[in-house]
Amino acid sequence: MSNKTIPKPTSKESLFSIGEHFYALESLIIEQEGEITDEIDQWLDEYQAKEADKIDAYCYIIQKFDDIAQEAQRLATRSTSYKKKVSQLKDRLKYYLERRARDKIQTQRFTVSICSNGGQLPLKLNEDVKPETLPDQFTRKYVEPDMQSIRQSILDGDTEAMKIAQILPRGTHVRIK
Known about the structure:
The protein has helices spanning 15-31, 38-99, 147-155, 159-164, and strands at 104-106, 111-113. The chain is mostly helical. It has a two-stranded antiparallel ribbon with strand order 1-2. Helix 1 (15-31) packs antiparallel against helix 2 (38-99). The model has no long low-confidence stretch (mean pLDDT 89).
């Protein structure tokens, strides 16, 4: 993580607006039959500097957002650990109260009580019941495409697979160093 301060951008133009100026410059150079005048040269220098500043600003923001996302991930990991500890402590406290046959205890700061859970009544299948032996009315069936099998079939030249799907080109991404 770099703590460099970047100078305030001199232009409020968008990256694509800057790109449009390069297209205009290209058209002007073609119009001038490749002749680069002082005006064109100055304009080119100005927009190359603006482009570099804008791309630098993009990279800076991308890096900052990535840093924030990594910190959020670190905190989420810690949160999971703390939630687990909270659950363990609550279970221990509940066990203690049940052992003491107490439903409620008042302390200086807290009132602790054992309460019944709400929602649907819990359900557990009998141990000798296997899901695949259940009648249809008690099962759910999910159908989803096997993308790996379809991909391999297309690569193997299967015309049936080619009728239902197509292999796409790999995408691209930006790497910032």
